[in-house]
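G., before I forget:
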Amino acid sequence: MELGFSAEDEAFRGEVREFVRARLPLALRNKVVAGEPLAKAEYLAWHRILFERGWIAPNWPTAFGGCEWSAVRQHIFDEECALAGAPGILPFGIRMVAPVLMKFGNAAQQQRFLPRILSGEDWWCQGYSEPGAGSDLASLKMRAERRGGHYIVNGQKTWTTLAQYADWIFCLVRTSNEGRQQEGISFLLVDMRTRGISVRPIIMLDGGHEINEVWFEDVEVPADNLVGEENKGWTYAKYLLGHERTGNAGVGYCRRWLTELKALAQRERGNDGRALAQDPRFRDRMARLEIDLMALEVMNVRVLMLEQQRHAPGPEASMLKIMGSELQQALTEETMRAAGHGAMRYPQAGTGHYFNFRKASIYAGSNEIQRNIIARHILGF
Amino acid sequence: MITLTDEQQQFRDSLQRLLRTDYSFERRRGIAASASGWSEATWGALAELGVLALPLPEAHGGFGGGAMDVLVVMEECGRALLLEPYLATVVMGAGLIARTGTEAQRAALLPAVAAGERRLALAHYEPGGRYALDALATEARLAGEGWVISGEKAHVLHGATADQLIVSARTPRGVSLFLVERGAPGLEVHDHPQYDAQRAVTIRLADVRVGAGALLGEEGTATAAIEYTIDAAIAAVCAEAVGAMSALLEATGQYLKTRKQFGVPIGSFQVLQHRMADMLLETEKARSMALLAASRLADATRDERRRIVSAAKVKVSEAARFVGQQAVQLHGGIGVTDEFAVGHYFKRLTMIELAFGDVDYHLGEVGKRLFGGTSTR
């Protein structure tokens, strides 16, 4: 909201704001604002509301049923939804596997999967990381052996977000041990109801169940579920990661959290007896957060515009990922600190959030990996 | 918006070409050592290219450009470490006249600035006033048809080369601005270099007499224009800093790829690659803020503008310090010598950090507007 957008774009903002105000169920909004975990049905309820309005896929081409909005409108839409306390649209289908299917999938796969991603009928999760393959993703070991019309999949994926709700998982699997390790990876779509798949919860620092291990034991996957060519999966995997990074700047969330933190600071007593909002040390830190948010917003629009020009995310997405995750972490940290002793009592949304968001600098390629990408692909080292 | 038009990009390319051929590091060294500290020839070339006319009103010999055009120019000034008084004359001096001058004053001064024939400087800050814009002790009192001005001024950028100084003073009706000719009786000007080789002056005005026509615009109404001009100057130096940081990133990247130790280019070490990645991140945050400040300068309300400009100055200053210090560090020994450009960029960036309010000052300005009073959305 710092940038001066055109009157048409501001009118669009008004339209989005009014729609969200009218259609977002209050109970759902309250749960989101309180930072409580959402049930599958709650995520899907909002998904369907947007789907029915035709707004579920801001970045998709209209040919596939998306909005094909300009960078500025995508930014405005995300910001308004987050500000209003709408649940996030989970990225795994809309933002991650769908662009891969559009670019590398065959027509049958596009027709089979994309409409169900739009409607929310299929919930997707991401099978990338393995216990031995985190930052060094290309060293992944989960095997997929071709036998007739099927692949037989054996191995384990981990950190799988909301796999407990998922209908489908897109997996990076090893189909060859020849050549460089990047050259033996394939991109496979697996129905979560297939025999041999088991999901085990991993509990995080805030006590929540958000991530899982997913085990595969002689899982039979039809060969039709291979995306693109066998052993070319690394290319598709990187394309997907670029989309993942652009998606998690979280400008709107940061703005809502900052607004909530300001309100908290006016209620809480500061160390000198006046409201915390009057404490000069606290104010300086708040001013820095506000400035970082301004920079993040402009950066987000700049990167979205570049992405649109090139029809693909570039290495700038790594800068955005670092900036967004660092600000999210700083905001959750200040929100916890603002509550003083009150922050110690379990359960507590602010403190839980702080512990939970240590993930942000680790997931989607750790911030150290992002710096490697910047060094190699922007700075040319 | 924050995107440059095709015209602006073409303009940037021509200015870049001019400065690349005309303003080498060695040539700049010579200019810095000259008596005036800037080059008439370069000033003439800038006038010819239309750089001076760019942000001036079309009615008075200008092209009617705005802060985004100034951003384009200042970024190149930063890249080339330009010493010429563009900020003082065009952005601040002419900007102030365009904003507050009478029709006659604008017609008399602006075309001459556009043509490169006239230089200006704003004399506002005072000794002991630090960064406060309202720390104003200089007074002007009515005397017959004209005014008599007394006081002291500090940090007057390029004051020695200015044909006219624009002096702020308290008058019976508030704060006013006066045009004071170079060499006016009672005007003492002390020229001094800064660490970045740019020039500035301190000024003493001992009962300096000026005519009624020297009053810029209306009496007692200058405060808002002074604030706007300082904000425009801050937006401009933010863009200049981004240009200087970009040049430092390029130079440091090149150095890390060629300098060998332990038998390999030092750029192969991850610790240095990540340092460079952080320098790029800081530069891009600064660029985002410079774009924001320039794009909102003219259309934002006063409070909103001050908040955005202060926010930009904080982010750019901190980026400038980090990138400047690290560029020196990564160059090792040659980074701390006068012989290599890197140190000169570092010095200019440091002066930008100190000018028009430091980080603490502007953090306070943003902090003041965090709760109530000014809405942030």
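The longest helix of chain A spans residues 280-310. The two ends of chain A are 36 Å apart (CA to CA).

More on Monday.
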